[in-house]
Design goal:
Length: 421
Amino acid sequence: MTAAADRPSNAPVRPPFAGWLGTTNDVTKTFLAAGRIPGLINMAGGLPAPETYPAEALAAIARRVIAEHPQDSLGYGPIEGLPELRDALAARLGGPDFRLGRDNILVTTSGMQGLDLLGKVLVDEGALIAAQAPTYLGALDAWRPRRPRYRALRVDQPDFDAVAGLTGARFGYAVPNFSNPTGRLVPMPVRRRLVEAALATGTWLVEDNPYGGLQFDGAALPRLIDIAAREAAVVAPGAAPSAAPSSAYDGPVIYMGTLSKEIAPGLRIGWMVAAPEMIAALTMAKQGSDLCTSGVTQRIALAAIEDGLVERLQPDLTALYRARRDALCAALAEHLGAWFTFEVPVGGMFVWVVARDPRIDTDRLLNAALDAGVCIAPSSVFDASGDDRSAFRINFTLNPPERLEEGVRRLAGAVRRLTDA
Ligand code: PMP
């Protein structure tokens, strides 16, 4: 029985919830609720391994920054973020061909807030978003209240036409490094085409890069923002970059990053890099969201960056995740290879597992998997229309190898039951 049905019949009728709540995907609710089932092996989330959180180092930093910077840590701060952190991010995030100034940087309450602010700034009802498909579920969630329309950017297809993809859109959205959900890299020629199309059509292009630091094999590809800066020759060849923290970058790429995957998601620290006019608009939107990101965690983030914490953690983190990826892929090949195909990702947190037989419906597989004690994320939640039931996303970072293997065994049992039925 629902809570509403329990209320006395003469109770006044409460106003309805906003209409967008009725448009959420039921499968999303199912798999978010699954996190609370005891004994379940959760392979659905995009969660780091909790044992990698540098708790002692962060505790020491927290004690120091609150004692040394009580006003910054405990007071309200500037909406855009602490100036020292913005300068440190500007110095860190510039590329070989361009420099960034303080007014190219907005500190956000992690990556999710950046996506929410983009919706506030760029999306009116019915506006078109051109999103790499399949699309990060959190982005779809962030923009759903604004009721956008979507065009799928199928960057993996050989005939992908970036100009046609971006024309008429408020912005393009891509996760070029180890995409959520597919774990794939957008190849270099497609990166170039996307940036050229953004420049040619005057479209903003959002580069969401939470996983770039989690590369296990091979060398990193240039970011979209690097390519845009080069194409637009933001700093004329031969011109000496100025050391002053004034603005330089004015390109179409809006770059987003976070500390969630490389340090700890509980810090809720992220950043956006963009042309100053876009940073100003996002700042207006942020004022109406949270006034400012937590000063304590901004100060912790600044100290962690200055101490080189990310660089110190990275080798162990990538070694751990590489081994877990290998364990998961071996188990997938052994137990699910007859029914599904997948590519081995060279970084990130996910493998995208595609059914060989179109009769396998991965929404139905989720329910069978939950009965078997394992949770995966079906493709429908990464599809703006909710229709795609051909694949699922599976995570390899949260669980140790034995548990990954046990999860895949349970999943194979669920597939067998589903295909025998
Ligand atoms: N973008 C993508 C593609 C993600 O996968 C995530 C985390 N799952 C985020 C943004 C947001 O992460 P956070 O808010 O923790 O920075």
